Write the C-alpha cells for this entry.
Amino acid sequence: MHSIKTYGDNLTEIRNTLKIANGEQKFVEGFEEGRIFNAYRFVYPLFNNDEHIGCMEISPSFVIVTKLMKELYDNQSIFIMKKSIVNEKVWKEQIEENYGECLISNLYYYDKEIYNYIEDKDKFREMLMKLESEKKLMI
C-alpha cells in the first residue's frame, strides 16, 4: 500500500487508475507507468461501513506476459516504453535501475527485468542489430 504520509507524493497526479478508483469509487484496470515501474493495474476502491477509505491494487509486471509467451510459443520477447512517458513519471534513480537505452530507437527504453529474463541474449542482440541496419537502409 502506498502512503502519502510516508512517501510524500500523491500518486493521483500521475496515475489515472488511482484518480478514477478514488474519485469515482469504482474498480479500474489497465496498463500504466508509475513512479517506480510500469504494470498492469487492477485497482479496487476500499470501503468501511459504506465510507470510502482509499483503494488497493494488484499490479503484475509485463514479465508475467513474457514468461507466458515463452511457455506457449517458445518465443522470447522484450518490452519497450516510450521515453517521454517514463521520464515524466518515474523517479530518475528508478529509470536508471529499471530501464536501459533501446538499441533500435532513442525514443524508447527497454525494460531491464524482461531483458534479464531472455535466455539467449546474443541471438536477441543480433536480431536487434539486424533491425537497426535495415532501418538505416530505409531512411
Q: What stands out?
A: The radius of gyration is 18 Å. The longest strand covers residues 38-48. Strands lie at 28-33, 38-48, 51-58, 80-82, 99-101, 108-111.
